[in-house]
Amino acid sequence: MVQQVTRGIKISVETNFEGTFYKNYKIHYAFGYRVTIENRSKDSVQLNARHWTILDALNNTETVSGEGVIGKKPVLKPGESHRYSSGCLLTSPFGAMQGFYSMVNFTTTKKFNVAIPTFKLSAPFAIN
Questions:
Q1: CB of 2 within 8 A of CB of 13?
Q2: Which residues form the ApaG domain (predicted)?
């Protein structure tokens, strides 16, 4: 598990390898990840958007941006947390993801970004 705190918002990420399959005559490696967003600040905040950079061992880079997470824009009061699961496909058995969440502080009405720590994706059979 990797963790990082930005402006009182703690992000924790756990990953797992889901398996391999063929798509368009190419092998793909499926990875799942579970993110916990915990508000350790004294203000209520809302997650409005996400931005991901997904890298694989073949030097392919994919950027994903969008509103909310899994169709939600959670509001977190102090001490509350939100957990969700998602996944990605790579064309190699190794990779990494990193990014940030765009949030708004309800007390100050200011927007800010919360770093998502870089986390590694690796198929267990490929680890030496």
A1: yes
A2: 3-128
- CB of 17 closer than 8 Å to CB of 31: yes
Two structure tokens written together for 59: 């030097």
Token pair recorded at residue 77: 């009061």
Query: Residues 4, 17: contact at Cβ < 8 Å?
Result: no
Q: Which two tokens stand for residue 127?
A: 């680890």
The set of residues, in sequence order, having a beta carbon less than 8 Å from that of 117 and lying 6+ positions away, is 2, 3, 4, 11, 13, 98
Is 65's pLDDT higher than 70? yes
Q: What region, left, alpha or beta, does residue 43 occupy, with left being phi > 0 and alpha being psi -120 to 50 degrees? A: beta
Residues 6+ apart with CB under 8 A from 93: 29, 57, 122, 123, 125, 126
CATH homologous superfamily of 2-118: ApaG domain (2.60.40.1470)
**% helix / strand / coil in the chain, to the nearest 5?**
0, 70, 25
For the whole model, what pTM was predicted?
Answer: 0.93
Cα 73 to Cα 9, 64, 119: the distances in Å are 15, 17, 23
pLDDT digits (tens, 9 = 90+) for 32-54: 999 999 999 999 999 999 999 99
